[in-house]
Amino acid sequence: MTTTTAPTTSPLAGLTVASVMHHGILGAPAGSDLPTLAAVMARHQVHSVLLTDADRPAIVTDLDLLAAAVEGDERVAAGRSGRSLPVVAPATPLDAAVAVMSEADARHVLVHDDGTPAGIVSSFDVVAVIGGHDPRVAGLPRPRPARAGAPAEARLARVRVRDAMHPGVLGVPARTTVRDLADTLARYRLHAACVSGVTEDRGGERLVWAIASDMDVLRAAHGGQLDAAAGEIAATEALTVDADEPLDEAAARMVAHGVGHAIVAAGAGAPPAGVLSSLDVLGVLAGDQG
After folding, report:
1. Can you spell out the DSSP letters for 213-282?
2. DSSP state of 110
3. What is the DSSP letter of 119?
4. Do domains 17-140 and 159-285 have the same CATH topology?
5. 9 partner at 20 to 30 Å CA-CA among 33, 113, 177, 283?
6. Terminal-to-terminal C-alpha distance of the chain
7. Is the dihedral of CA 199, 200, 202, 206 positive or negative?
8. What is the pLDDT at residue 249?
9. Where do the domains of the chain lie?
10. 241 neighbors 256 (Cβ within 8 angstroms)
11. In the chain, which stretches have pLDDT less than 50?
12. pLDDT of residue 262
């Protein structure tokens, strides 16, 4: 007798954009300077801001701001955001919106209702749904004070990575399923987690790390890989920075590699000391670090 396993239903099935979208849009004028935009992102813990008076739906991202800071340009951030934001309708099936985001490599889609911007859906919202959480609760920001401070280039240069990073690492084993990874990210309100595994080389076994981001989870959902192992879908580069490295140098490497998270090394053979995120750097730019 032959038995077959029924396909697992996707948690996105039957949902529409309207059921998960955030109503209202966090935005800033297109002419805003770098410290102002950094303060908005750091205060609301978001990785992009909609330019509210742009000619077309466009966003400025965390990496746009880091690039401007590394170049020492307080005004270039808004001007460099040339990427359009994909647009969907409230009635669009959520899995169709996920396909749009995956194929456009976009962390957000703008929701238009009869031609009027009505809200937004992020990759984190999708992760929350996959993990079994209400995205409108899991995605609530944790407000923290932020203020414009010293010129960006000087401020980053005088701060070390260890002074801006989050100590410790939230990691998951490589065998963790994508569904369970999504649950972990949503539960702790994180956009990425470290994936640990063991590899063998001539020196024997050693622990290796990768990073699985919310976009990795979104792409896995689009590809029908929710039951795959986290180690198989962790496509985000595991950039490593040193705890004593100047923050401007670490930010420059994050921009060059196009990543929003870096693992902070604690020494040869030792577990990571922590994680540096783009939002940690933006907190410094916004004046959170004294």
Report:
1. EHHHHHHHHHTT-TTSBHHHH--B---EEETTSBHHHHHHHHHHHT-SEEEEE-STTSPP-EEEEHHHHH
2. E
3. E
4. yes
5. 113
6. 70
7. positive
8. 95
9. 17-140, 159-285
10. no
11. 1-6, 77-79, 143-148, 198-201, 204-206, 288-290
12. 92
- Which of 77, 26, 37 lies closest to 287 in space, CA to CA? 37
Pick the CATH number of 17-140 from 3.40.50.300, 1.10.1760.20, 3.10.580.10, 3.40.50.80: 3.10.580.10
Vertex 23: Cα angle to 18 and 27 (nearest 5): 135
How far apart are alpha carbons 159 and 155 in whole angstroms? Answer: 7
Residues 6+ apart with CB under 8 A from 89: 17, 111, 112, 113
- pLDDT at position 137: 67
Name the region of 224 (left: φ>0; alpha: ψ -120 to 50; beta: rest): left
User: Beta-carbon neighbour count of residue 127 at 10 Å?
Assistant: 29
- In sequence order, what are the residues at sequence separation of 6 or more whose Cβ sits closer than 8 angstroms to the Cβ of residue 129? 11, 12, 15, 20, 94, 135
Strand partners, 167: 274
pLDDT for 51 equals 78
Contacts of 92 (CB under 8 A, 6+ apart): 16, 17
Nearest to 47 by CA among 29, 59, 31: 59
- Domain range 159-285, CATH class: alpha beta
139 touches 191 (CB < 8 A)? no
Distance CA 84, CA 17 (A): 19
**Alpha-carbon dihedral 27, 33, 34, 39, rounded to 10 degrees:** -50
Fill in the amino acid letter for 103: E
**The pLDDT value given to residue 10:** 86
pTM: 0.81
CA distances to 64, 108, 247, 277 from 165, in Å: 20, 25, 10, 7
